[in-house]
Amino acid sequence: MKRNFKLAIMLVAASILGSAATMMATSALQKKGVITDSYVLTKQATTADNDGGYVSTSSSRPVDLNQDFTQVAENTINCVVSIKSYATPQQRYQGDYFDPFEFFFGPGYGGGGSQRQPKQQQQRQPSEPQPTGMGSGVIISEDGYIVTNNHVIDGAEKLEVTLNDNRQYNATVVGTDERTDIALIKVNAKNLHAITFGNSDAVKPGQWCVAVGNPFGFNSTVTVGVISAKARGMSTSDNSGIKAFIQHDAAANPGNSGGALVNTAGELIGINTMIYSQTGNYSGCSFAVPSNTVKKVITDIKQYGTVQRAVLGIQYTELTAEKAKEEGIAATNEGIYVAKVTDRGAAKEAGLREGDVIVRLNGARVKDSGEMQEEMNKLRPGDKAEIEYYRDNKLKRTTVTFQNDQGNTRMTKQSDVLSLGCAFTELSSEEKEDFKITKGLKVAGVKAGKFKNAGIRDGFIITDINNIPVDSRDDVENIYNQIMRSSDTDKVMFITGFYPTGKKVYYAVDLSDDEE
User: Torsions phi, psi of 335, nearest 5?
Assistant: First the structure.
């Protein structure tokens, strides 16, 4: 009994001494600002396997307690601006309208244009431009070029940019790209603080990231988080637009749109674009357009006036376990399953077939649609790239020359629809009632261009183009793009409409010159 008592006393004393030594060592390391976690082995009472039931509960990793983000913040806040958009409120009835960016960012933020309400809720608005939204932007050059989101400036008649030092400038729009939600604007200023671009391809989940923007109008707000995922797909109603976001958990709220996402070196790795939320405010899931995509988009806008997009010429789905079993695919369990190959497209010319499974594009793995689009976003018409794919469970390779959306390798022109040489004005509900039509679009400001050459004059009201009813400028642009992308030799707009006098007129507008 005495022996057992002495043994117990010795064990307790050893435990106390060990704990004291550990605390002293920990205190010393804390003073130096570094603690190294160690493996802690814990006995599991209910298990007897895994080398006697011991499991590791933590890993060995250095934690720098003195590390903070002050230098990153100081280097970034002067590169981020506040953008306020102004527009003249619409007087006519807009009908019920759902703005997905208002869903993500809250009323009055993003989306551009006036907030639309049912007719019975609308009141007479002043005719002068009013504030319609607020967002952020990132200075990318000392001479005043700023990148932001398209939805921040869309529909604005005036853009007011405020720097971190409270200097204010009016900005002009250089170019926009709705599909990636990126816009390039410019202020007349010199010697601005320009951000340094980082390589978004090198970003990995788990890395620190810092978001800088103007949430709720609070300028130069800095928040910190980690990269949650890459090439994150976000579905849209029309299945278009970017599906390769960087997901992170740095807090983003209304007003952060268009702001910077940087790494710990202060390099731009993304433009914050949206959040996933059921309330409109931050809930842990923020999304940014990768900086490599941003760089390519703004380079195209500055050099060509519009974004150059490579087209592979396939319809595809992600390979699933069910699809692999159905098609007898055993060589891979992930990739891009080719559902259809477009005639005369780039994929067809490279020898790809329906049923092939693409696993690599231009040397990068593509296991899902997000990664596929991330790689496609880097390419232009005429670029060549190697594709690795499986056919009949055998790995094959081919080189593809990408085309544009018109089926050739030429660079496309800036907003080709502008070659029509006019503006379009939407009709009010009262005007439609007077003309006894349900849809229509008025031609205005006719100048040198396709419409003038065809004889179309100001005031002409278009009811349909190529037998498709039109009600907005977007309708005209969509039809124009469909014509230019088609394989038809003759590129013609057959326009039906009338003048306010009631005279009905038909026009044929030749678009063949736009292929040059």
Answer: 145, -175
Place 298 in a pLDDT band, splitting at 50, 70 and 90. Answer: very high
Q: What separation in angstroms does the CA of 309 have from each of 7, 183, 313, 363?
A: 78, 16, 12, 19
What pLDDT band is residue 155 in, cutting at 50, 70 and 90?
A: confident
Measured CA to CA, the distance from residue 507 to residue 222 in angstroms comes to 56
Q: Is 181 a catalytic residue?
A: yes
Question: Which one from 82, 151, 291, 368 is the annotated catalytic residue?
Answer: 151
H-helix or E-strand spanning residue 364: strand 364-365
Tally the residues of the chain.
516
Predicted pLDDT at 30: 46
Tell me whether residue 257 is one of the annotated catalytic residues: yes
Active site residue 193: no
- Residue 326 pLDDT: 94
Domains 314-401 and 416-515 equal at CATH topology level: yes
> What tokens were used for 119?
């007719």
| Span 314-401 CATH architecture | Roll (2.30)
DSSP assignment of 40-97, as one string?
A: -EEE-TT---HHHHEEE-S---EEETT--SHHHHHHHHTTEEEEEEEEPPP-S-----
- Alpha helix segments (H runs only) across 83-195: 100-105, 150-153
Nearest to 210 by CA among 85, 43, 77: 77
Those residues with Cβ within 8 angstroms of residue 91's Cβ, 6 or more apart along the chain or in another chain: 124, 125
> Domain 416-515 adopts which CATH fold?
Pdz3 Domain (2.30.42)
CATH topology of domain 72-307: Thrombin, subunit H (2.40.10)
303: phi > 0 → left, psi -120 to 50 → alpha, else beta; which? alpha
Number of alpha carbons in the 13 Å side-chain half-sphere of residue 87: 20
**From the candidates 114, 257, 277, 286, which is the catalytic residue?**
257
Give every CB contact of residue 348 below 8 A, 6+ residues apart in sequence.
313, 341, 342
Domain boundaries of the chain, sorted by first residue: 72-307, 314-401, 416-515
How much of the chain, in percent, has pLDDT values that exceed 90?
A: 55
Q: Please enumerate in sequence order all residues whose Cβ is within 8 A of that of 364, keeping only pairs 6 or more positions apart, or say none.
A: 371, 374, 375
Which of 154, 177, 181, 514 is labelled catalytic? 181
Q: What is the pLDDT of residue 117?
A: 43
Q: 257: buried, middle or exposed (CB in 10 Å: 19+, 13-18, 0-12)?
A: buried
Residue 164, pLDDT score: 94
pLDDT tens, residue by residue, 211-235: 999 998 898 899 999 999 998 876 5
